[in-house]
User: Fold this.
Amino acid sequence: MEKVSPQYDKNLYTVQQPTTNSAAPLYPDTRMNNAPGVVINIKNIGKGLKFDGFTLSAVPTFVVIPQSATPAINTNIGNIFSITGIAQAITSMTSGLTGTPSLGETMMIQFTDNGTARGITWGASFESTTVSLPTTTVISTLLRVTLQWNAVTSKWSCIQVA
Assistant:
C-alpha cells in the first residue's frame, strides 16, 4: 500500500497543529509523520481509500458485472470490474458506463469468455494510447485491461493489457 505524500489535498483532509504556549515553531506539513500531537481529520475518504490512523492507502474495490452485450459499469462504486462467462460479443463498453471519474483515476476491467472468443467494441468513452484496446477476448483466458482517466480528452485511456 502506498503512503499519501506529505503534499496533501486540502479537499481530502486537514492537518491540525498541536497548540502550544511555547515559542517553538509548529511542525510543517512535510514533517507531520514525526510531529507529536498532530491530528489528521478526514473530510471524505471516498471509494477505494483506507485510513488506519497513520496511512491513507488505496484499496482496490472489486465489482462483479453481469455479462451483457452492453455491460453496466459504474466507476463511482469500484475500480476493478470483472465480467465472466461472456456469451456474446460486447457491442459497446460505453453505453452502460456511468460514474464521475477524477483526473488520473484508474480502473481495471477483467474479461473471461465462456470458451468462445468474443468481440469487444469499446465506444467513444475509451481510447488507445501506446497500448491498444483489445478487440477480442482470448478463449477461456483472463484478459485484464487497465485504464486511466484522461481529463484532457474526457476518455478512459488504455495503459495496460495483460
Summary: Residues 1-45 have pLDDT under 50 and may be disordered.
